[in-house]
Request: fold
Amino acid sequence: MTPDKIYMQRCLELAEKGRPTTPPNPMVGSVIVYNGKIIGEGYHIKSGQPHAEINAINSVRDKSLLKKSTLYVNLEPCSHYGKTPPCAVKIAELGIPRVIIGIRDFSAKVNGKGIKILRDSGVEVTEGVLEKESYNLNRRFFVNQLEKRPYIILKWAKTADGYIDYSEKSIAKVNWITDDFSRMLVHKWRSEETAILVGKNTVIRDNPSLTVREWYAGKQPVRIIITTEAKGLSGNYTVFDGKSSTLLVATKQTGIKLQGAKIVDAEGLSLHKIMQKLYAEHNVYSVIVEGGKFTLEKLIEAGLWDEARVFTGTKVKFGNGIKSPELPVAPDHTELRNGVLLEYCYNDKSL
Reply:
C-alpha cells in the first residue's frame, strides 16, 4: 500500500468514530502529514461542530509546518458557509500546499466547488485515493444527496431450508431463527439508523417493540409502520406505547386517529415518493426494514433498497411456512458465527 493510501486509510478510521453522532452529515476524517509523519488529525464529531479538516489543523502544535505539509481527507472539503465556514477556504488561507481527497462530495452545495477553490489558490489536489472505500463509508450520505430519500437496509433471518416464519394461519408466536449474538448485533444496527420499518401485518402478528434493548449505547430509532390502511391496529400494540417516536404511513386515508403515532398521509404515492416524503418532511436519513415478507418483497421489486443483511440459521422444520424473499444479486461478503451465516448484499451502487 502506498503512503497516500496508508494515510487515507487512517482518515477512514478516524471518520468511523463519528458514525453515532454525525448524521445527517457525512463521516469525515483528516490527517496532516509533514516529512513522512502525522502531525495532526481529527474527525467530524457532530453536525454544527468543526469539520474534520479544521479539527486536524487545530491539533497541529507547530502551525508553521502547515505550509510544508499534506492534508488528507476522505471527502472533498466543503465550499459553502453553513453552520461552519468553508474548509476549502481555510485550507487555502493557511497555505497548505497539497491536499489528497478520497472522493468528491456530490451534494449540490459542493460537487467540485471545494476542489476548484483549492486549485484556484495554487493547492495541488489529488482525487480518488481509496475512492471506493470512501464511497462505501458514506453510502447513506450519498444516497440522501443524490436520490433525496433514506438509505434503505433490508434485514431478515431464514431457516436452513429457506423459511422466515411459520404459516400465516399458525398461532402467532416468537420464532427465533438465530442466536443471542445475532439479536444483539441487530439491536446495534438499529441504534445506527434513523428509523426501523415494518408492515402492519408484522405488528399484528408479532407485536414487536422495534426498540434498542440489547445494545448498551443504543439510541432509539423512529418506528415506522407502513400499510394500505390502518384497520386492525390499535393503541394496545407495543409500537404505540410512546416510548419511542412512531410514524404510521397509510396509503389510504380514512380519518385515522391513533394515539401514540403520527400519521403520514401517503395516499396516491408510490413507494419511491413515500421514501422521499419521509426524508424531506420527517428527517428519516436511513431506515432498516425488518419485515414482513410482503413489505420486503415490494421494496425489492421496486429496486428500492441499498443493502440487505440476511441471516441463515441452523433451524429447520417450518414446514409449509413463509418462504424467504429472494434478492436479485449475489452476496458481496459473508460472515459465519456459531453456525449462523450472515450475508451482506448491495444494490449495485458502489463504485
